[in-house]
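hiii so my PI (J.) wants the whole complex modelled not just the main chain, which honestly fair. so below is everything: two entries, each one labled with what it is. i double checked the lines twice but i was tired so who knows lol
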Amino acid sequence: MLLTWMIFIPLIGMILVLLIPRGQDNTARWITFAVTLIPLLIAVSLFINYDRGTAGIQQEFSVPWIESFGINYHVGLDGLSVTLILLTALLGPICIGASWKIEKGVKAYMALFLLLETGMIGFFCALDLFLFYVFFELTLLPMYFLIGIWGGPRREYAAIKFFLYTLFGSVLMLVAMIAVYLKSGDPGVRTFDIPELVKLAKTSGHALADPAFQKWAFLGFFIGFAVKVPIFPFHTWLPDAHVEAPTAISVILAAVLLKMGTYGLIRINVDMFPAGINYWSNGLAILAVINIIYGSFCALWQTDFKKLVAYSSIGHMGFVILGIAALNKPGITGAILQMFNHGVISGMLFLLVGVVYDRAHHRDIKGFGGLGAKMPIYMGITTLAFMASLGLPGLSGFVGEALSLLGAYYGSFDHSRLLTILSTIGIVIGAAYFLLTLQRVFLGPLNPKYEDIEEISPREIATLIPLGILTIILGVWPHFAIDMFDQNVDAIVKAVDATSKAVGILP
Amino acid sequence: MSVASLIFTILLCPLVASTLFGFSALLGKRLPRQDLISTAAILVALVCSLLLFGQILGNPALKQPGGIVDSMVIDWIAISDLEFKMGFLFDSVTGVMLIVVTLVSSLVHIFSMGYMHGDPYYPRFFAFLSLFSFSMLFLIVSDNLLGIYIGWELVGVCSYLLIGFWFEKESAADACKKAFLTTRVGDVGMFVGMMMLFAKFKTLVLYGEEGIFEAVSHLGSEDILWLSVAGCLIFCGAIGKSAQFPLHTWLPDAMEGPTPVSALIHAATMVAAGVYLTARMFPILTPGSSLFIAYIGGITAIFAATIAIVRWDIKRVLAYSTVSQLGYMMLAIGSGSYVAGLFHLTTHAFFKALLFLGSGSVIHALHVHHDDHSEHSIERDGIPPEQDMRNMGGLRRKLPITFWTMLIATLSISGVPFIFSGFWSKDAVLGSALGKAMSGGSIHYYLLFAIALIAAMITAFYMFRLIFLTFFGEPKNQEMYEHAHESPMSMAIPLIILAILSFPIVNKWSFEDLIMQPDQPHIHASTQQASALYAEAGASDHDTHIAGDHQGDIHHTAHNIAMVCSIIVATLGILLSWLLYARQPMTEDPVEKALGPFHTILWNKYYVDEFYNGVIVKRITLGLSNIFGWIDFRIVDGIVNVVAFINREIIAGIVGLFDMIVIDGIVVTVVGKGIRAIGVQIRRIQTGTVQNYLAVVLSGIIILVLLFLSLPRWIP
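here's the output for the full assembly
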């Protein structure tokens, strides 16, 4: 029940916010902030009380929902989801803090944000494929409006692009989902239940375990998730959406929404289609390397601060995909770790871009210069975030990236060594664009236009500190996160190995 | 105290000192006297290092490579059965490195209290120094490659922060970026090497039962090529960090940082980390990778030395000299003499730190505040006037302590015989190359020995050129000369201490007694291909003992020859320098005339920077990013926009299609309606009518939520 409360408290909060009389913007802000603290508290307690010694599902709760189709309201946690729920819940209050200065339609903004939070948390908890899909779509709507109304000058274009892309992906996903449902058994015993389906898909002889079926079903889900991650060539919505979205929404987009794609890949594509992932891992690895190299070079080309961070996300999500494609323990562990770390770091990066945008009212990297003299604390935090993002050991970005690469080097896909070595180009280019940005924004003589620019405010520091601390903790002591999903990764890898032997796709 | 707790203290003190600064800065308050906190921390670390060194002297087991693993080992990352353990490695190499780092770092801290006095970011400087000390010490005491890599990258970022310390200067901002990126190229090579080793051995621990070195000794002969590649890749990290050719270009530019930083990081410690790493990896170096290392070292030694001849900037001369000397150390290790490499590292750390601090003292003395710049101190060739040797001369009368201490260091680096430490260590390096050649190693080592000898002569030449130009002759800039003053005691004392350390306190023989050389892989013996690479004069198993004695003789002879040669070349170099720079008042650079067009090449540093900037950075990297950026903007996104255009026109059609697919009607109710509602929205946005926007949005959402909540009751 705790999970259900966590999912629907933001929804209750939304109604509460809508009931606030007109003109009481500050009340709306404080109420929203308070509401987002509740899921955070629940998430922390779930995180602490999570039994790390088992791969089983915890906090499980299931009631029949639409019985005629075998659809249940089935929620539960495993190590992967509890980690991402913590990330989502943590970003709730942070984003509200970062949205404090929004003046246009505060009530509606806050209400939509809370709806979005319900969708995100629900997505990570859902253990019924139908419920999973509903929550997946539920995040789309508030996101669309949040970008389309509170965004920058080209907000309509960006919002529609985001919407259409995701719609395109989710249609294919829906088809695959229905196919899985129809294959799951005879009429009457068909099910949408994810753990049940995973079990069936690993039962040899069952229709779901048929490699030919898995190959195609995999592809349907994959495209749906690939748009979210985003994987080349489905990525061009991301830079536009990021550039136009308000700061807090960019944070959510980068930190959580992209993770929904990779979470789906692991939860469905890897776990439910072991034969499928074995078949497609070569292609997945190639796409990952393209993401890394292409994303990094594109980032180097950008002069818009936010676009640069957006493309860097594409590059960094490439390491997640590479780790997943490796299909071994270091690879998948690295991928999950990188998901969490990228959430934290990219959240910081977008918050930081927002700080300077609020002061200078532009994001042209070449238009700053020498800000370090006027904003030393801001420079310090930005340096920390950049260093974490470019994979400096001791900060969290390194661990995930290094494990993904180590795993990929002897991963299951073809030419694993060559592809992994190629992807290390991304590490150098990543350092290049971040250092170039650091130099252009902070170093050198002070641009006289910014003689009176204000230092970062305590409110803004407060939004950044929790993320900064997490970055350091996870960099120094990665067990903090790894312990959560170690058993799950073990189970996944074993299942994939067993299947690949059983169906003989791999030698 | 136990070894582990001493090492722990050594690491913790500087870490705490720098963390304190970070917290206080975040809270907007400054701790009083960050300089004292940092200096006290490093002095405690120095005392602990000395205590540890005492333990080595009393415990022969610690002199073995790998030493003892009486240390705290933790599972840093454990993924089921895969473990990345973090532990401390303590043997005599660690002990010596700890002393070098903490000692030089302490002296630099003290020196900086004088040198950096009055800087607006004075506390920040000391916090960075502490962070650097922590990272460097972490690198040294790590018992595994991952730990070394972590320290390795952390010292890199500290170097970045300190080179760019005066970040308002455009040149400093460029230099710090260049340093980080250039070394990162090498680091990626190192990381790939680590991946190779990890994929094969599933561990990155060096010594011990399950360590890499144990595993390497069991490799079959078919793995020799693989191991050579892995060794060369790991060495790539050292090429970057120790500024070896072809990744050397960042180090001279790093001189944009404050001079104490140049002394500590870019001369004595961090750049020597590459040598340390290569030495640590000694047990996996095959003959092939050894020769590669020796060549890189030899080429770097002569390459950088020739460039140093024509520099006018006192700090750049020293920077190229550092690059060149690091090449010597690599040459020694590549020649199979681990001890000689580490010995030269140690002596070099002291005399080069001294030279840099001495140059800092000169710069400090000549520094004219920017507001009273006169026409006498114009920048020439982009060199700051107080660093330009064309503005110096006769300073020995004004700066006696600086002069005498720098002279001692110069005598040491030039290899003046017997009473200076540099002579002994350089002789060890030269002797190891010649010994390797004479005892049946590859014929290449004769060539390397010759290269090293020539480089030694050039070293003596340009170092005395520096001394003559700076301290002898008549003052060339009267105004700056009159302004000059000897440095305060906080700067003079470190100079004197380092000068004492430039005498052979630890001589070669006691050093050889202290550090024992580990074995290299023996997998070569059985294959022909390998024996071609590594012809150890036919020493098969049964006559190893006899051959061993014989080799001892050869090495002894080689060292004697090397010693005589090195005395001759040093004398020649100094004499030539005296002839050209000390006797007549200089009107123009005599070398410029003598070298002709070659001078231009040297002045432009063989055009390596031009090549990197013009080809690698501009053409390849930025070119690729332009191409990718263009493709993304025009083609990938272009196609998307075309598709989107079509979609926009037929969006209602898509919604209809959607309905058809989801025949069940469930999804239609939940999602379809929402999408249709959005379709309406989209058209509104498109046509620009966004009045009553909020109301529509909110009612849409509420309808959706109500639908969602009431759905179970609707469907039987």
